[in-house]
Amino acid sequence: MGTNYLIDTAINAALLAGEKIMEVYASDDFGIAQKDDFSPLTLADRQAHLLISQILEPTQIPLLSEEGIHLSFAERVHWKSFWLVDPLDGTKEFISRNDEFTVNIALIHENQSIAGVVYSPVSKELYVGLVGLGAWKTGNPEADCTLDWISTHGNQLPLDKTEHEYTVAASRNHLDDQTVAFVKELRKLHPELKIIRKGSSLKFCLLAEGTAAIYPRYGPTMEWDTAAGHAIVKAAGKNIFYTDQQTELHYNKENLMNPYFIAL
């Protein structure tokens, strides 16, 4: 199976999952439950996971989804390639109805995120990145949207390469002391620094667009939170590193929690 076919399948899965999520979003009952780690789970999370799983299954590539069964590292370690999915990134944003949630689908190869799809169901903005080829954004995509169509008709990222005021992307719900201290140091170099706070993987999208210059994260994230955005950021000419700003974030670790990182 060619890469274009795989990415087209992921795009289709993200768009259809977005429709399913919006059906729940428009309802009066989110079916909220609590997972073992005390994080919330909604009907939209569950339905999006099932739909994405069904659409990706014919690719015969293993799937690791936040809402699926997490196989042991002894089983995962042999995966050369796999899908890494967050069916609804930003469940808290979904519940609070602030519209800042996304569908994230990444293709991982040899522990690196090589392709990613991020779809915002409310704004209907679709981001697609293929490392080595490029990253694009398009609005109101058709259900049968493909990589070829996006690369021809979409806007290539970054959108604006001119220099603007220095902007930091930060989590809407997690602005910890270490992040505050990091931003304070940045402000010494960039006195006019501004902060944009967003939920879900939209922070990576701001970075890929060129709207933000840096996204420091000194809080807990899981591999499925970052993988799709990572591919888009990297395809747009930036990257995600450990806090040493040299070691690239990688995937399919024994512990699926990410270390702290800085995207720039």
Characterization of the model:
With 264 residues, the protein is α+β, with helices and mostly antiparallel strands. The chain folds into two domains: 3-156, Fructose-1,6-Bisphosphatase, subunit A, domain 1 (Fructose-1,6-Bisphosphatase, Chain A, domain 1, 2-Layer Sandwich); 167-263, D-Maltodextrin-Binding Protein, domain 2. 33% of the residues lie in helices and 25% in strands. It contains eight helices and 14 strands. It has helices at residues 3-25, 43-56, 73-76, 91-96, 147-153, 177-189, 202-209, 223-235; strands at residues 33-34, 40-41, 63-65, 81-89, 102-109, 112-120, 125-130, 134-139, 155-156, 167-171, 194-198, 215-217, 240-242, 261-263. Helix 7 (202-209) runs parallel beside helix 8.
